[in-house]
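Weekly modeling sync, notes
Attendees: AB, CL, MP (scribe)

Item 1: holo prediction request
CL wants a bound-state model with zinc ion before deciding which constructs to order. AB pointed out that an apo prediction alone won't tell us much about the pocket. Agreed to run with the ligand included and paste results into these notes for async review.

Input as submitted:
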Amino acid sequence: MERSIFLDKDGTLIHDVAYNISLSKIAFYPDIFSSLKQLVTAGYSLILISNQSGIAKGLFNEKELRIALDYIVGYLYQKGIPIKGYYYCPHDEQNVCNCRKPLPGLLQKAAYEHRIDLSHSWMIGDILTDVGAGRAAGCKTILLDRNRSERLLPLGYQDPFRPDYILDDFFGVANAVLDAKNKETEIYTNRHTGQ
Ligand SMILES: [Mg+2]
Ligand SMILES: [Zn+2]
């Protein structure tokens, strides 16, 4: 079974411009490139997981959104970073759905389609709804709190929104995932050598 890193898009990989689908306003955070490469080298597949309520609100349609998502995937591919897929929730707060984060529907769908081992996978995002979705799916989670933003505080760092790590940049994210994986290997080795 495959291990994946589920990545939020806005505020995580690219700067958060509300309801943006314009390619000229897509700006990548520079710390993602070497870090994502490290994660791919370590055997993780990368999958984008995004709430896109702009569709339900009529601000753009799915075709326009896909052009923006395909651009992001193409840009990363050309940097040597393969994105295995993207999943988005087109609904908003007015709809009942099982895919809008913090619900785990998008992660579960991805896991089913790509045979992903959720318990050895991670959800990375800049707000606690990302963490909630990751936890609900049974993944480990990292809150990438780049700006130490106050909007995170109302939910509190409590279950079911308690991240495994809170980090300020993507270098830290890659280190945390790789450290955890190395420790897992050590524990396994120690168990099997009786040390
Ligand atoms: Mg975000
Ligand atoms: Zn949805």
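Recorded for review: The longest helix spans residues 170-193.
Action items: CL to compare against the apo run; MP to circulate these notes.
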